[in-house]
Structures are given as C-alpha cells and as structure tokens.
Amino acid sequence: MDIMSCLLIARYSKTAALVVVAIFLARTTYSGFIYPAFLTPLRAIPTPKLRSWTKGSYTIPPLSLIAQLRLWKSTIPNRGLIRYYLPGNQERVLVTSVEALNDILVAKAGDFTKPAAVRSRLSLIAGNGLLLSEGEVHKAQRKALMPAFSFRHVKNLYPVFWAKAVEMAECIEGKFLASGDDVDRPPIQEIRNWATRATLDIVGAAALGHDFGSLRTAHNALLKQYRLMRQDPSRLEMLVGVGLSLFTRHGGQLLSIFPTRRTRTVKEASNFVRTFCRDLVLEKRKEPRDGEDCKAEKEQRMDIASVAFRSAVLTDDELVDQMMTFLAAGHGTTSHALQWAVYALCKDHDVQQRLRDELREHGINKETTPTFSPADIDTLPYLRAICNETLRLYPPVPSTIREATRETVVAGYRIPAGTQFAISPAVVNVDAELWGPDAGTFNPDRWMGEGRANSGGVRNHHGFLTFLQGPRSCIGAAFAKAELACLVAALVVRFRMELEDPGKEEELTKQGVGSGPADGVHVRFELVK
Ligand code: HEM
Fold first, then answer.
1. What's the pTM?
2. CA nearest 301: which of 156, 472, 161?
3. What is this model's ipTM?
C-alpha cells in the first residue's frame, strides 16, 4: 500500500470515528434529555425527578429495583401510572392502581402482549406454549388445557404432592443416605437445594407423568440445564445491549442472535429439555394401543399432560411446547415460594408452633402420615393462611411486562402502541391502601376469620396479584397453592426449623421470573418429638 492510500484511510477512519461519536452524543442527548422532558407522548404521566442516561431513573443504588419501584409508588403522587426510565433511558410505565390494572389485565387485555424481546428470550426456556402464545392461538390453547388444571382435576393430584412432600422431609432427615454419605448428617441444610428438587419431582410426576427422582439423586441432568439457561448476560453483553438500545428497541433480541458463549450454552440447554419432552410425548404416543387393561390404565393417568393428551386437541409438537412450559413455569416459582415460607416461619416461631398445633389437631403427624388423606390439606385454615400470606408478601414473580399493541387508553391516559408497562405483584401486594397499614409485614391472621380465607381482607381482588388476574392469569394457581401447602405441612410436622443466622434479613430484590431469598435459606432442622 502506498503512502497516499495510507493517508486517505487514516483521514477517512478519523472522519468515520468522529461521525460515530457525533451520532452517539446526539442519540444520548435526544433519548436522555430531550425526549423524556419534552417529546414523549407520555409526558402527562408523573415521573421520578432524577434521571441519568446510564442508570435511567434508578438513582438510589443501595435500593434494590423492587424497593425502588415501591418507593416511587408511595412517594410520587399519581393517578394509577408512573413513568420511569431504564438504563439507556428506555421508557416504561409502572402500574399502581387497581383501575389501571383492570384496564390492562382484564377490560382491554386484547390490546396488550408480552414484548417480542421477552417472548424470544423466554421461549428458549419455556417453549412456545401457553405462557408465550398470543391472541386466538392462546385462547385455543387455554381452552384445551383448562380442564386439566381445573380445581376438580387438581384435587386428584394431591396424593402426588403429599407423597413427594413427605419424601422431601424424609430426605432432609437423612432417611435415604447413599453409601458414602455422611451418616451424621449436619442439622443445617439449604432449603433451596431441597425445594428445587422437590418441586421438579412434583411437576414431573403431576404435570408430565414422569418421576425425575431428583430428591434421591443429587445430580439431575435437567436441573443442570435449567441452571445453564438462567445465566445472566456478561458485563460486555449488557454494555452492548445498552449501546444498541440507543438505536433500536430490539437491542435485547439482536443481542441474543450474537453467538456468544452464553447464547450458545442457553440454546444447547434448551434443545436438551426439548428433546427430553419430545421423548416423553413419543412414549405417551407409543403406550397401550392393545388390550382393555392397558386402555383402562391409560385412562386413569391423572397427570396434566395425559389429560391434555387424551383430549386430542393438541398436536404432538404443541404438547412438547406445553410440557416445556409446565416445567419452566411450574418448578422454580413454587420452589421460591417454599423458600420464602420456610424463611417466614423461621422468623416467627409462634406462627410455626401454631401451625404445628393445627396440623396435630387434625391428626397429621409424622407417624400417622400414611392414614392422612391429602385432600384434607384444604381444611386447615392456618396452613392456608400462611401459604397465602407468603405468596402475598413474597410473590415468586415480582414483576412482569406488557406492551400495548395498538393505541389505547389506560387509567384515562392516551397510550400509544409500543408503550411498555411494568405490572408488579411485589408493589401492588403491599399497597397499604388495599391491605391496611401493616401491608408490609407477614401476618397470616389477615386470612383468618369470617369471609377472609380467600381475600385476606384486601379491598379489591386486584390487590393480590401473585398469579396475576384475567385471561392471562396463572393457570397453575390451584396446583401451586396445594403443592405449597403439602410441602410446608410435611416440613413443619416433622421439624422445628430455625435460621442458621437468626438475625438474617432477606427481601425481594430481583424483577422478573423467580425471586427467592438470596442465600437459599440455611436452616437448622430439629426433629419434633
Ligand atoms: C407459586 C407458584 C406460581 C406462581 C407465583 C406463578 C405465577 C404466574 C404468573 C404471575 C403468571 C403470569 C405471567 C405473565 O403473563 O406475565 C403465570 C402464568 C402461567 N403459569 Fe404460573 N405460577 C406458579 C406456578 C405454576 C405452576 C405450578 C404451573 C404449572 C404446572 C404454572 C403454569 C403457568 C402457565 C402455563 C402460565 C401461562 C398462563 C397463560 O398465559 O394463559 N404456574 N404464573
């Protein structure tokens, strides 16, 4: 290359670099200052005063994101909506009133979907099943699956929940020590470990008709794949994501196309789970074709997938996606709920003892467990109250997102298509206007007494948002509540539980799916005599 060419390249690369810097500065100024202050069509909606381009509206770093949302809700005067900004100054709207919730979740539910970026990220973990389908496809899938998730049918699954809950307690006690295991099992164990294994086994047996046996084997291949899929993006990926967000709303989606080590690992793990579910469907397909006995046996299968399979509405491929959805939506969430329940019970020994007394009064104790009818679990008011209060104060899905697909109106504000909303059970479930002044404390008694068992005394049913409301509410709510009740009962009847560090305080921190106590809850188990 001659000297002239070198000089030309140097000159043009300098110009190109200057152009990139200029575009970057112009975009930053526009999206960081001009747009949110003067141009956004949402400027009538109140917004936090402080804002920076790198942190968006999150300007109080020691506060978790959830704590920050709660602070805005209680300190910024608003009429149901608060506008805030993510890092990179992407705009989002927090929904704070029951009227606005009703607009988005019920009255105008058809005007909202999960954003495409969220769907494409979640589809790897949860398949393209009920959780992520939209419109008419969703309606048809929901109709096909409703009978299997109805309370009447879920009751048939209680024995499975109870058997697995007892197995978990027995494992903690050390009943199934493999040779080589420590015979003097230490009394302190991490609840997260057992909760994850128990809830995977339960969703396997009750929703898929397959026993993973993960309670008895520490290393489960499927659990490993879910751990791999939950990897957070690296710092570099996050930085690139924020950079991309300056130019496009689809930065997250673009990022997932880059073949980084993380995206490759997540795709491989997703394929593993998909292949596993496909094999299960093939097994179901191959099963008894001949013989009345086999047919009768098949018809007795109560697991959710078998019921859906018998209805013959879903194709095999659709069933594979639904199975992936049940696995993803059904085990982490309940595992987190159990971890929070144990944490709350360890924090209040009177509540723990009162529950133990109730269980015993109803004839449930370690020895008489086999004669106990699992369906009785619904008849224990205090157990139910504790589970509901745990789900209220520590919602395992602390927030979710909706995007307007067309221009619409929410809480009286005109909302353009593309506006994103944060719907946060973690914020709404502790609203003092709905729950009273003790909304932020763990108080199972709010669910006790005349007419309170199902409402907890909340002023409006949208105030309990743990399973959302409306046509996109959790289809597995009855399943999850009964499962949690069995798991809690089986632990409390057998053990007196105390935190390893009784002074430890835990709070909900993360947004999105799956927020458990940060340290997995280290508990000292003492056998109840
Ligand atoms: C404590 C446990 C659980 C909690 C807190 C929970 C919470 C939720 C929430 C908040 C949603 C709505 C998400 C959104 O649209 O943004 C949802 C949807 C869903 N959940 Fe659950 N869930 C739990 C357990 C389960 C279980 C055990 C299953 C199945 C076995 C399940 C299956 C589903 C499905 C299929 C959907 C999609 C429903 C639809 O869009 O029509 N969930 N869940």
1. 0.90
2. 156
3. 0.99
